[in-house]
Design goal:
alpha+beta; 21% strand; globular; 24% helix; 6-stranded antiparallel barrel
Length: 254
């Protein structure tokens, strides 16, 4: 916990708040590919009756962090989708709308809630199986913040041990309608699990190389975790398959 005046805020909240601030500052000075395509993202507020009741758009206007990663179905890790997160903050919970792309006509796939490890550890035992870890996504370079010049390298170090709960109500973006039961989505947690083609497609979209981001994030000083996919009734782990679940330091160069 960190003290600011009379307030005591979790480091997790401060890290995400920093991400929001950096993202907003960056978007004002250096538009990205997404900014160029969607400069009129809120133009709909100015049409018809919407302009007369703009205060009702407050929850949407409060979305100011854009993340891109990949979601993997917990029941079937071979089912994988690109996931574009548009997030805001509610107290110490961060809530994200998940779309298939960053295009205007993108399908709304579902939602993700993000909490700190401290909050996760206080959850009931039968609740934890719904929450996935973020360490591998961050350390491997798969989680990026496209509106930030460093793709989130600086702020993500404070978010490595967070957890996400993700449900996709549009189970398969290939279908024309959101049919079937909600699908519990998970994170990739080991090398080779995620489709190389899926990563390459995302990298081409943003003109980046995930491998380069992974190399930069070695500066955090930890090994990239390698965890087998969790079964439906198993809880996730952040760093290690067994034993104490703590970050493993990178081997020092001779």
């Amino acid at each position: 916990m960190t003290r600011i005046g009379r307030l005591r805020l979790p480091l997790f909240t401060l890290a995400l708040a920093g991400a929001f601030a950096l993202g907003m500052a960056f978007s004002r000075t250096a538009p990205t590919v997404a900014d160029d395509k969607h400069a009129d993202a809120h133009a709909g507020h100015d049409h018809g009756d919407a302009a007369k009741h703009s205060k009702h758009w407050a929850p949407v206007d409060n979305i100011h962090l854009y993340l891109c990663a990949f979601h993997v179905a917990k029941e079937n890790p071979k089912f994988q989708v690109e996931a574009h997160h548009f997030c805001n903050q509610h107290n110490d919970v961060h809530q994200c709308q998940i779309y298939e792309t960053d295009a205007k006509d993108a399908k709304l796939l579902g939602v993700e809630y993000i909490i700190s490890n401290e909050a996760y550890q206080k959850l009931p035992a039968d609740e934890k199986k719904y929450w996935h870890p973020h360490a591998y996504e961050i350390m491997s370079g798969q989680l990026i913040a496209p509106d930030m010049k460093d793709m989130g390298d600086e702020v993500f170090k404070g978010l490595v041990e967070t957890w996400g709960k993700t449900w996709h109500t549009w189970r398969d973006p290939a279908t024309p309608y959101p049919v079937g039961e909600p699908l519990l989505m998970w994170s990739a947690n080991m090398d080779g699990q995620l489709s190389d083609a899926l990563i390459a497609k995302r990298d081409a979209r943003f003109g980046i190389k995930t491998a380069d981001i992974r190399e930069r994030r070695k500066a955090y000083g930890w090994q990239v975790p390698q965890l087998q996919p969790a079964k439906m009734n198993e809880n996730g782990r952040i760093w290690t398959q067994t034993g104490e679940d703590k970050a493993q330091p990178l081997a020092k160069k001779p």
